[in-house]
Each structure stands twice: as structure tokens, then as C-alpha cells.
Input
Amino acid sequence: NWIARPETTPNASTPDKFWGFSHQRDEQVNFTILSTRVWPAYGMPQFGQIVNVDNVSPPYANTHSLTSNIECGVFHGCISADARLIRDQNGVPVYKPVWQYLMSNTPAPFGLVSLGFTRGRQAVSRPFVGITTKNYKITLRGGNFDANTKIFINGTEVNAEFINENNLRGSLPTGKFGGFGGTTVQVRTQSGQVSNVLKY
Output
């Protein structure tokens, strides 16, 4: 549940830090549940569709969701457990390129991943159209924020509160909530780097 409500756990990892690799016939982990419920709960689908690595080379369309369907003695663990690894004719694990890709530790880009709202520090759903913005704040999740990151709503800077490198909280412009998707949010660094745009 804390993954489904990330704003309640400010120090939780952001979706860009989650990666998955599982065998489609794993005897102990239901791949359908994993790929349709668990991985989406972590926000992984936004980084690409599930890619079968069996006949593809890195970077696997830069996705965070990987799978395999290679035949092996015991499917559970054959993608990672030393004793069960599938090896090529030279004794090299066939999944070595996959693990190098997964563990490359590419830093998350500066940008926005998701947004939410709080009222009195409590997370709330997006208020209805016409409700006053008074007492509400916007919460932003993303990557590589710092204490000087600025928040812009519809192009106008608003007061920003730095929480950590993945979380910001900002004031909302005085007025009322407009139509769904009609308001833009963007963040910028002190050096002028500009993020992607989210709408609410």
C-alpha cells in the first residue's frame, strides 16, 4: 500500500529506480500477477513494455521490465541463482548481458515522475473543479531535485519546499482548481535545466 500511495512515504524510491527480471514459467512467482499487478504498482510500465531478452540485445528498448522463457531445469532461480544459471558453450551465463544492463546504475534524469495533492499535510485526491486552492499544496516526485529547484505552475513560479532529491512540495496559485488536465507543472534547476511537464 505504501507504494500505491508514495506521498505517504517521502523517502521511498521513485519508480525510475525499480527494475524487474523474471522467468515467465517461474514455479513460485506467478508471472501474470507479477507483470500485471506488482510491476505496475511500482510504476515500472511507464518506462516501457515488458521485453523478452531471449533474442534481443541490450539496451532492450530501455525498458525496466524484462523476462525470459528459455528452457531450464528449475525455472525459479535459473535467471539468477548460481547453481541454476543457464550457460553458453564457454560457461558464461546467458543472462550476463541482462544483469549488466540491470546493474549499470544509470542515474535517474532530472525530471518529474508524478504529482499529488495534500491538505493539512494529508494526501488527498485531486480536488474537484471550482474548489478553492486555499489550504492545498502540490506534491511532486521525480529525480535529482536539490534545495534550489523551482516549481512553475502554468509558467509562473510558486513557493517550493525541498523535501529530498526525489520529492518537492509547492504552494498552489491563489484561485480555484480548473478543468482536469488544464494546468501545467514543471520544475527547473538554478542553472536553468528544465524538466518535463505534468498536467493536473
